Amino acid sequence: MLEAVELTRHFNGVPAVAGVSFPLVNGRLTGLIGPNGAGKSTTLAMLAGTLPVSSGSIRYLGQDITAMPAYKRARRGLVRTFQLASEFKRLTVLENLLSAVPSQPGDSMRGALLGRRYWSAGEEQAIAEATTMLERFDLTKYANHYAGDLSGGQRRLVEIMRALMAAPTVLLLDEPMAGVHPHLAREIGHQLVALCEEGMTILMVEHELSIMDEFCDPVVVMAEGAVLAQGTMGELRNRSEVVEAYLVG
Amino acid sequence: MSLLLSSISFGLITAAVLSIAAVGFTLQFAVTDVLNLAFGAVMIVSAYVAYAINSLGVSVWVGVVAAAMTGAVVSLALNRGVYTPFKRRGISPIAMVIVALGMTLILEFGLQAIVGADSVSYRLNQGPNIGLGSFRFSLVQLVILSLALVIMTAVHALLRYSRLGKAMRATAANPSLARNSGIRTDQVVTVTWAISGALCGIAGSIFAIDAGSFGATSTDLFLVLILAAVFLGGPGQAYGAMLGAAIIGLSTEVGAAYITPAYKDVIAFVLLLGMLALRPTGLLGNRT
Amino acid sequence: MGHNAAIFYIITLLVYGGVDALACLGLSIQFGVAGVTNFGFIIFQAAGAYAAGVLSMPGDSANGGFQSYIAGLDLPFPLPWIGAAVVGGLLALPFTLLVGKRLRGDFAAVGLLVAAVMANLLVTNYRPLFNGSAGLSLVPAPLQDSFDPQSTGYQWGYCGAVILLAALVYYLLHRLTESPYGRTLRAMRDNDVVADSLGKNVLSLRLSMLVLGGAIAGLSGGILVGFINLWAPSGWGYAETVVLFAAVIIGGAGNHKGAILGAILVPLGFLEASRFIPPFGSPGLIPALQWVAIGLLIIGFIWFRPQGILPEKRRVNIGFVLPGPQRPERLPGSSTKVATLCRRCRVPPGPQPRLRGPGVRCFASTRVSPRFHPNTGTAR
Question: I need a surface site. Which of B51, B172, C8, C323 has the fewest CB within 10 A?
Fold first, then answer.
């Protein structure tokens, strides 16, 4: 489905990521784990198109998308979230969700000028989807609140919901549990697993070993800009390099 | 001197004034991440202070020192009183630029309200003409050139060899890391604004001395040249500012010799827009 | 003032007000809604004025040939006004390079500012273009062959035309903003990197905004030049852009009514009011103080009331509970005044019954307290 091939990224001559390759397995929640500075977020950013690659390539649905800009990747179903809070602060929670819905007839200058009659059907459908999403994550009562007014954990949920509204085929999550209450983190984890069972492919960058353990399979371990190991959690636990990278880094 | 040589000599003078100003501007951007568009306004205010002192009969060069002090004080007040509170609020970089434009209006037109809209000029004895190789400069021009060279060397020494300089570079590169490493970033910012403010004042007074006549809004166009020099070299890069100043100063004056002089600043504008469009990090900046 | 002079003064105010309102509307959608900070905005208005001028004027050898300018096509109304809008829109295209994702917003804004200064310099010095620093004069008033431009009837008609056009543009912008497209623009304004990652083509959106704002600005210039019949570089420096930005910020960025209010208060009200202050001090003192005041207003508003007098409205959907009293921290600059998007569903103020269901299609209006705590839930 999605494959990184020898991805490399330099910052001022210093390689942050060098020769990273791994495939994303269809319909699974793949974890990308590693100590701070391992290059996980950089790799995710390259996969999503937010950061250009210095060398290497990315294949998605059989096509080389290395040169494709991020917005085009998103339109093809490759959607990402961000590590730092990135909700649209001056839009309501509902508007945040609606903004991600692709192919809206009202989402062009021409469509907007043609008026409500032209785009209201699409909008109603989007609102229906958003309603379902809000109910799924139990945030219905915040629909009309400015997204910037919510608590940290709630904003994280909004971001995940918004990414889901974009109808992703492959979802790239950048530390979705960071700074989130453990209980909520488990909730999110369960939701993600459920989504995989429904057919979504997810890559989750995470820091916490316990989260990886519980939800992710397979797992890719990175350290110092390269892939250290990949495999199922069971296989990896027995590899000494992995354990060392974690205790040391 | 031939046309080419005389235009190069003019270019060197422009580059000299520009380099002092551009280094000051870029240092402010480096440590505060704010494009201080009120820089030109502080320049001209300091220039007027120097001019006022000179009208009382004091030497022009003492006036330059006074301008340096004025520049330092006003810049410090600007950062402490305006930019820092807004930064703490968390306003966007764009809003900061708008605030800077607002300050420019207040400073420049406040000055104009006080001194009036007429231009003034220094009645300065330019001194004997001195030959330097194939070039001929007046004494005043040579002093300006030497001052610029001394200042550039001092800035270089400061950044490279002093603890303060290292602290400034660290704060510019990564403020939170610098703070966590024990650097008193607040103090570094204050000192940087004081130093760059002094540079601003010096540049303002020298600009006024070099210009035929000047008024409260004379630095508006000069600010664009400063921006061109800064962005050419790379915003936040002190050496880049020096390089940019040299390029802009020389290219505009030499260009003026061959195209209509009225358009000479257009060269700077085109270079600036080109850099922004193609390589926003500048010639010496890091490609991201 | 004599009766006629008073009438003409009022008409002049109205025409200027309409032109300023148009310009501010263009800036409102560009800057207020889409977050494109175009510090070169004034050159789009100037381009429109010059275009309308040289399209409507006879060839430059006319009137003794004392002016030098391009075109001179002697076109009848309304072609010069249409040309003004088209030229304003086209002028946006070269600026594509500045509004892509690669460039920080404040850098791009500075680039546009520099472009404005450069354009002024070029036009001032290259006389064959638009007659240099002297500018265009004897620009014909629209339909001046059929009507007497000095007559009261014509002047009122001009007034009416401007106000009509301003209302039309307001209506169109309202349509654009209160739609999914408007939402996309605001999302891009709030966080362009994220908008990009959600499938929005940021470059294309920004370019569209530059073109649209440019066309509106150009139209405003064309209208103005037909009224005052002259246009010179001294009238469109970067300072004029600052005045327009001040107007939009003070009136309320992100709210088109706020833009119109700002146009009335700042370029019109503020600068006209000084006409009535008895002159004191040296000549030039009052204009200088005006600029100081504008600077103070800009900074004051950004500090105390960044959302402006008429803030951007919260788009609320009545299918869900409206924001109630138990609210967390407020976002600086947010407002709680809420918009009416669907005139048919007038919802009375006060706590709403929960209306559920996917059939909900309107957004409703509720006035919640506009003070700094958006959570009081009490209606005015």
Answer: C8
For the whole model, what pTM was predicted?
A: 0.87
Q: Best interface-test mutation with C: which of A71, A104, A129, A139 has the largest number of C CBs within 10 A?
A: A71
B2 CB within 8 Å of a chain A CB = no
Q: Taken in order C317, C320, C324, C328, is the CA torsion positive or negative?
A: negative
pLDDT at B49 over 90: yes
Q: Which of residues 123-142 of A touch C (CB under 8 A)?
A: 123-128, 131, 134, 140-141
Say if residue A144 is in the same domain as residue A155: no
Which of C38, C104, C114 has the highest number of chain B CBs within 10 A, making it the mutation to test binding with B? C114
- List, in sequence order, every residue forming a beta bridge with A146; answer none if it has no partner: A92
Question: Chain B partners of A11 at a C-beta cutoff of 8 Å?
Answer: 286, 288
Chain B positions touching A12 (Cβ under 8 A) are 286-287
- pLDDT(B92) > 50: yes
- The dihedrals phi and psi of B132, each to the nearest 5 degrees, come to -135, 95
For chain A, what is the domain count? 2
Which residue range(s) make up the domain with A143? 90-149
Quick check: C240 and B89 in contact, CB under 8 A? Answer: no
In this structure, the answer to whether residues A212 and A166 fall within a common structural domain is yes
Q: Is the pLDDT of residue B71 over 60?
A: yes
- A25 and A110 in a single domain? The answer is no
Task: Give first-to-last CA distance, chain A, whole Å.
Answer: 31
To the nearest whole angstrom, how far is the Cα of A133 from the nearest Cα of chain C?
A: 13
What pLDDT does residue C273 have? 75
pLDDT per residue as tens digits for the range A48-70 = 999 888 889 999 988 899 999 99
Amino acid (1-letter code) at residue C22: L
Query: Vertex B99, ends B97 and B100: CA angle to 5°?
Result: 60
Nearest by CB: C302 against B95, B109, B235? B95
- What CATH number belongs to B3-108+134-278? 1.10.3470
pLDDT at C351 over 50: no
Secondary structure of residue A114 in the 3-state scheme: helix
Flag if A88 and C331 touch (Cβ within 8 Å). no
Quick one: average pLDDT of B82-99?
92
Q: Tell me: the pLDDT tens digits for C84-109? A: 999 999 999 988 888 877 788 889 88
Q: Is C332 on the interface with A (CB under 8 A)?
A: no
Residue A15, SS3?
Answer: strand
